[in-house]
């Protein structure tokens, strides 16, 4: 574990003996599983019951291969959660971009202004790389292309000097994946029986399943906040960036069997009861601005309002 104390030079996490797959996201697959299994202190027991009583599959499939992005789901027949390698790459890239843009464009200039000195010098290079990586993420929705780990930020191979811009997003990424897995887990233990029974379900029924899956997933994760709260921020941010990553597939938020994406985002944030000055509001604004720019949605932005006010104002604009 020498890399933990490494200050300079390249960090390379790849170990062909333990990491499957061809995309640099492979180095985090084990971490995803470990984080999910330990969602909260009693979750290993809940999982054991879900395996025994609900027939939840004991394994999670990762679909490897050079394919364009396909979202996660749970197989109805064998109650097995399926994640796709390209989707996981997409998710990490989106999270890295949102986080780095937030830190370098919003947070650090704010600190410089507040303290009246240049605590953080301008860092155009990493900002440009983050914006470029966001373009790469979006391109994966359309077609697969290789993630260049020598030139683009990634979790497998990076400079120790830049580790914060990689390892912080790693924390949010594993929480975002945990949110997705807890969501699918809820479908597995609560909804698939009804779907399997062959009874007719109205579309509003599906939407209620989805609401319950989001809300139970958040409850499960909040149960896992340590008494010293050290993991609370990554959990809160992870859930929000996980939901933000769903916006970039199209210019509208309508879905047949899911609630509108902006409703899922608002419901999640409100369920977590975040204070007015929480980072999540600003992070959500960065995510929504990227979506605005992607599709030329022409939202009205203002600096007169607090981040929270601006957030709700944008939600209103999305609804109009
Ligand atoms: Zn779902």
TrEMBL record:
A Pfam entry, by short name: Peptidase_U49
Xref: InterPro entries: Peptidase_U49_Lit_pept (IPR019504)
Protein name: Peptidase U49
Annotated source species: Flagellimonas aurea
